[in-house]
Amino acid sequence: MGRYHIQVATGAWLFSGSFNRVQLWLVGEFGEAELELQLRPARGQVEAFEQDISQDLGPLQFLKLRKHHSLVDDAWFCDRITVQGPGAFREATFPCYRWVQGEGVLTLPEGTARLAEESTLDEFQKHRKRELKERQLIYCWSTWKEGLPLTIAADSEKDLPPDMKFHGGKRLNYEWTEKTGLLEMILKRVYTLLNSWDSLEDFDQIFWGPKSTLCEKVHQRWQDDELFGYQFLNGTNPMLLRRSTSLPSRLVLPSGMEELRAQLEKELQNGSLFEADFILLDGIPANVIQGEQQYLAAPLVMLKMEPSGKLLPMVIQIQPPNASYPTPPLFLPSDPPLAWLLAKSWVRNSDFQLQLFQYHVLNTHMLAEVIAVATMRCLPGLHPIFKVHT
Ligand SMILES: [Fe+2]
Predict the structure, then answer these.
(1) In the prediction, which pLDDT does 312 show?
(2) How is the cofactor bound (predicted)?
(3) Which of 228, 265, 299, 373 has the smallest number of CB atoms closer than 10 Å to its CB?
């Protein structure tokens, strides 16, 4: 009984507003009332209304909303709705933070975070069960590849639940970066179409366009051992480097390499011997791309840390020993420059593969996806975790 002040906040994302009409109901402990507003939510706006309600609704528990459309269902990203009243009654907030689509009635509970045992009111318990049932129909599990973590059931980005997709602005930004990158590659391809590449300096032909200081430094010094070592801690994959506690068993030193063994042992004694072992890549079949067989190596790199802090490679073994093949060759900084550079390039290639598949795709994307899907399926919107999440 009395006057209520209602505020409806719409998201600031691109396309968050809607020209469809929104209808609202207040649901209190003693009753329910429909509001007579004709809301067409605008992007990034908080729209305020007042309404007198003759009935005594009691403490507000839920807010119901429905978006009507005639021809076009224009999705609306609702941030939250706050209701204050009647009189000096405290303000109740109903967080939404999702896309509202279709013509179904959406019920938003009052937003105080509650665990299951704290929702003593039967209405909240019922809402919680209903919400989890709905979520488990929307967020389903799928197996992408046997042996890998489960994923969300969706064949492409288009099949994802609306709230799991990129927001408009982020999607446009992503697509724009992709398109400009592709355009740059095409331009460089056309530019170099008629020139053959005969030396490493010919790479300069494609090294133009906007560049950072670091990019320029890498361009100047990519062949140096110092930059090669630096990348194990400052490159894309700083996860693999280990201080050696013994000489790795896979490092078979043929006769004639006693001097190298002595150097390695000296560094080991000093605690300045480091190793990067890509053994995880051993035995993985490589792809065939556009009819061309690709190759994967599983190298081992031994490095020493100089007193100045520089990390320098001492020896590279491209493949681990295998009983059916001769002892794998070892590459040294004293080898002919191109042979040594090629060995380092194979290591960089393996570093890229391991970083992308293990540390990036598996440990970040796939692991995060399992947690995200399980959270959406098992925890209702009122769970305190969503206060942190949003
Ligand atoms: Fe990624």
Answers:
(1) 98
(2) Binds 1 Fe cation per subunit.
(3) 265
pLDDT for 209 equals: 75
pLDDT in tens, 128-160: 999 999 999 999 999 999 999 999 999 988 888
Task: Give me the pLDDT at residue 387, please.
Answer: 79
- 127 a known binding residue? no
Does residue 120 surpass a pLDDT of 70?
A: no
The terminus-to-terminus CA distance of the chain in angstroms comes to: 34
Of 37, 34, 41, 35, nearest in space to 16 by CA: 41
280 contact partners, CB below 8 Å, separation of at least 6:
298, 354, 358
- Give distance in angstroms: CA of 366 to centre of ligand 1: 10
What distance in angstroms lies between residue 79's CA and the mean position of ligand 1's atoms? 27
Q: Is 227 exposed, middle or buried (0-12, 13-18, 19+ CB in 10 A)?
A: middle
CA distance 17 to 19: 7
74 is in an annotated binding site: yes
Residue ranges, CATH 2.60.60.20, the chain: 2-112
How remote is the CA of residue 177 from the centroid of ligand 1, in Å?
A: 14
Q: What is the rounded CA–CA span in Å between residue 128 and residue 116?
A: 8
* Range 2-112 classified under CATH 2.60.60.20: yes
* 68 annotated ligand-binding residue: no
How many A from CA of 146 to the centre of ligand 1? 21
Distance 232 CA to ligand 1 centre (A): 20
Ligand 1 center to 363 CA (angstroms): 11
Around Cβ 62, how many Cβ atoms within 10 Å? 18
Is 365 annotated as contributing to ligand binding?
yes
pTM for the model: 0.76
State whether CATH 3.50.50.60 applies to domain 217-390. no
> Which part of the chain has CATH 3.10.450.60?
217-390
Residue 194: predicted pLDDT: 77
pLDDT at residue 389 is higher than 60: no
- Give me ligand 1 centre to Cα 342, in Å: 28
Query: How far, in Å, is the centroid of ligand 1 from the Cα of 168?
Result: 18
